TrEMBL record:
GO MF annotation terms: delta(3)-delta(2)-enoyl-CoA isomerase activity
Catalytic activity: a (3Z)-enoyl-CoA = a 4-saturated (2E)-enoyl-CoA; a (3E)-enoyl-CoA = a 4-saturated (2E)-enoyl-CoA
Annotated source species: Linnemannia exigua
Statement: the UniProt record of this protein carries the keyword Lipid metabolism: yes
Any one annotated GO CC term: peroxisome
Domain of life where this protein originates: Eukaryota
Family annotation (Pfam families): ECH_1
InterPro entries in alphabetical order: ClpP/crotonase-like_dom_sf (IPR029045), Enoyl-CoA_hydra/iso (IPR001753)
Spans through the membrane: 102-127
Alphabetized UniProt keyword annotations: Lipid metabolism, Membrane, Transmembrane, Transmembrane helix
Record's protein name: ClpP/crotonase
């Protein structure tokens, strides 16, 4: 895939994600309006990750990084409840394995939060290695306590390991909506910028800075396996049953 090419998924039907390349930077853009998670969306993301990994391996890249983003005012507004829960085992067999695939991806990852990242969208962002967020619009939030709905162990583990204890408490027990400024102060995100374009440029800047770490090859993924064994085990527990 060259810089001029755009790779779309799924291959047939409505496009859900687009992947473009700018040198070592692979940009995965979710293009389904609010980018709610369904079986089709999760599969498209996983297939996209496999595509990027295959290109990195084929070209033996020593600099590579994945950045994900949404469009307009949404990064992702979480699960499409009606569609997701019409599929038996969606959470255990589809959604959480997708989070694990991002968490353990073999090159650096950056979530570029161009807008709202609610519930499943927040979890997807937290599965990345780094996060940047738009400062003038959008929130990060886990709203299960207000639905009300339980929070599966794998999702809890992801948030607990990626957040300071008092931040985790506010996130899951209060359904706190974190603005960009609050997310930065709470060390949930690594940088903020104004507007969609400003946030994308910041995301690219962060991504290109860490792209050389891909030279570690298989060791990059191995180190992450040692960093997050409990998260991965809990995310994948249901999928193994």
């Amino acid at each position: 895939m060259t810089a001029a090419q755009t790779f779309t998924l799924p291959a047939e039907g409505k496009t859900l994600i687009e992947i473009t390349r700018e040198g070592p930077l692979f940009i995965m853009t979710m293009v389904d309006k609010e980018n709610r998670f369904t079986t089709e969306m999760c599969k498209a993301i996983c297939d996209g990750l496999d595509h990027v990994a295959a290109v990195v391996e084929k070209e033996e890249l020593t600099e590579a990084v994945l950045m994900t983003r949404g469009q307009d005012k949404f990064y992702s507004n979480g699960l499409d409840i009606e569609k997701a829960f019409s599929v038996p085992g969606f959470t255990d067999h589809t959604f959480m394995p997708m989070l694990n695939k991002i968490l353990m991806f073999g090159i650096p990852t950056v979530a570029c939060l161009n807008g709202h990242a609610f519930a499943g969208g927040c979890l997807m962002a937290m599965a990345h290695d780094y996060r940047v967020m738009r400062s003038d619009r959008g929130f990060m939030c886990m709203n299960e306590i207000d639905l009300p709905s339980p929070l599966p162990a794998g999702m809890s583990a992801l948030l607990r390991y990626k957040m300071h204890p008092h931040v985790y408490r506010s996130c899951v027990l209060e359904a706190k909506r974190f603005s960009a400024q609050e997310a930065l102060a709470s060390h949930i995100v690594d940088g903020i910028a104004e507007g969609v374009e400003g946030t994308i440029e910041l995301g690219k800047k962060v991504a290109l800075k860490i792209a050389p770490k891909a030279k570690a090859g298989v060791f990059y993924g191995m180190i992450k396996e040692d960093m997050y064994p409990e998260i991965s085990e809990r995310l994948m527990k249901g999928a193994k049953l």
